[in-house]
Amino acid sequence: MSRPTIRVFISYAWESDDFKDSIWNLAGWLLNNSGGEIQVMMDRYFENRPPEKGWQIWMQNEIDAADVVLIVCSPLYKKRFQREDDNEIGGAGVTFEGAIITQELYSTKLRNSKFFPILPENGNITDIPTILQSYNNNHTFPNGNERILKLIYNDNPTHLTEITNAISDIPAETKNGELEKAIVDEIIEEITEQEENNEKTMLTPIQIIVRTFLSLSENSKIDISKKLGIFDPSFNTMNPNERDKAIFKLIKEQNLLHALWEQINSINPFENNTNPFNKKENELHS
């Protein structure tokens, strides 16, 4: 038995052709991967001829009728949403949609199960309008299309287990490997000066993040190193094992375990969505 059709409205600012095409591709991907269970609406369907009802009524009706509104956040979108764009030409659509969204959140006292910010792959969370920042769940496209589909379906795990249970999901070929042990030993070397109970607390999350990283594709590993700002051109020619060791050495030196967890979680979400590494102190080097 198929699920009922879910109506999705995509709100975004008209920017470059490449930017518009990336959103168009996202809409197509959602349609193609939902088996007809998702109906996507966006203003690009009316690129040449406006809707018969006129833009204002059309936007109001589509947002009201949508089960989920995906809000593609960019610097320009945020400016127009928050009425900070001084350019008098263009942008009325985002301004009007922003007013509708803000009013609905106000009317529901910020109880939100409909409006969700998403970011292009090179986006920044600072591009999310202030009122929407508390609903950010690190959704990006196109690499995060699968998670966006799960967002639309409200497909959260039925129960969350401790992060240690995620070990069972790690591919067998990466369990207890010599490379993993070498990397883990390198990362936890400094823990010996800390209390014994702190070592026990940190060891399992470190093992999990190392194992999960090693299970990723080679392209994903390189992409993560770039996003963490530690990419070196030599990575492309190094032996994969030596490269992975080099990546983790830089991650340790620059206290990037928290950021690494976020990057991996955006590709292959952990069952427990709570980052075990302290963002400010990174615990290992506090």
Output the number of helix runs: 10
Cα Rg: 22 Å
CATH architecture level-2 label of the largest domain? 3-Layer(aba) Sandwich
- End-to-end Cα distance, whole Å, is 53 Å
Topology-level CATH name of the largest domain: Rossmann fold
Give the low-confidence spans: 159-164, 170-176, 190-203, 281-286
Total DSSP E strands:
5
Number of domains: 2
Helix content: 40-55%
Q: According to CATH, what is the class of the largest domain?
A: Alpha Beta
Structural class based on helices, strands and sheet pairing: alpha/beta
Largest sheet: 5 strands, parallel
Notes on the protein architecture:
With 286 residues, the chain is an alpha/beta fold. It folds into 2 domains: 6-153, Rossmann fold; 163-267, no CATH class. It has 10 helices and 5 strands; from the N terminus they run E-H-E-H-E-H-H-E-E-H-H-H-H-H-H. The chain has a 5-stranded parallel sheet with strand order 2-1-3-4-5, sandwiched between helices. Helix 6 (178-187) packs across helix 7 (196-214). It is elongated.
